[in-house]
Amino acid sequence: MLKYSFRRILGMIPMLLLISIVVFTLAKLMPGDSLTGEIDPRNTNPKYIAEMREKLGYNDPMPKQYFRWIGHFVVGDFGKSTRFKISVAEVISERLPNTILLGLSSIFLTYILSFLMGSYAGRKPYTIGDNLIGAFNYLGYSLPAFIAGVFAIFIFSFKLNWFPSNGSVDIGIEDGTVEWWLSRLHHVFLPALVLGLLSIASYTQFLRNDIIENSRKDFVRTARAKGTPENKIYNVHILRNSMIPLITFLGFDIVAIISGGIITETIFTYPGLGQLFLQSVGTRDYPVLMTLTMLFSFLTLIGNLIADILYGVVDPRIRLD
Predict the structure, then answer these.
(1) Does the residue 241 lie in any domain?
(2) Is residue 319 part of a domain?
(3) How many domains does the chain have?
(4) C or N: which end of the chain has fewer Cβ atoms within 10 Å?
(5) Neighbour count for residue 260 (Cβ, 10 Å)
(6) Domain ABC transmembrane type-1 spans what residues (predicted)?
(7) For all residues of the chain together, what is the average pLDDT?
(8) Contact call for residues 237 and 223 (beta carbons, < 8 A)
């Protein structure tokens, strides 16, 4: 396992280099540059703009610009945000805790709700409860995140007034207090539920079908023939085997949170990295945009690595080495 993990980590290096080339090239092909987002050409002397572009190296050959950028990036110098006028690292560090909280909350809700609904539907198939859970699953499959987010805000924020529709914490609360943490959890619950909606529906249906399939296998019939109590058969033989594949999805959840968080954070005006990414596109804040793209790509590779490793951990029959 260690040998396999080490090989995968080494294999990520050329992949990240290739991604960096693509990110840099796409940033250069976009209209304008970082200077365009920092100054207004209508109110600035064109000669000054040309001098600044020369000073910042924007007129250098593309390979030279790339190696200068990637060299600074490797040592942790991500540049300066043209919108916020501070370093990119500071901008990201302010938003990162919110995205981490949203991601962890989404994963927690996904696995808790999937386990409860999937185990119930699998143990009592074709009942009214199973049919209701199935209807919820089909709804989760069919609703895109932006539609689900709008409906969630309309119903739970505007109509029922159960959850706030935007922000990450109430104004005027002292940081670090119990009230502050409760407010953060109150704000993050609804976007976390919307973010994990598709995964909840998928995992619930997967667990339900796997429990039904395992309950019909020979080792379960043998356990019943030996007089094993039904609860023990369900908890040890059926549920345990059905949960193993579900655990391996954890790595893929990281990838899903990265892609879905951009839309969800924007809908709920949740101040995380996803919302920052779209704002950077609109304001041509290329240093922030390029750094976030590299960060999302790195987390995607890490998520796939975790998923592969978990396959071997939870199922010893798989030999990754």
Answers:
(1) yes
(2) no
(3) 1
(4) C
(5) 24
(6) 96-307
(7) 81
(8) yes
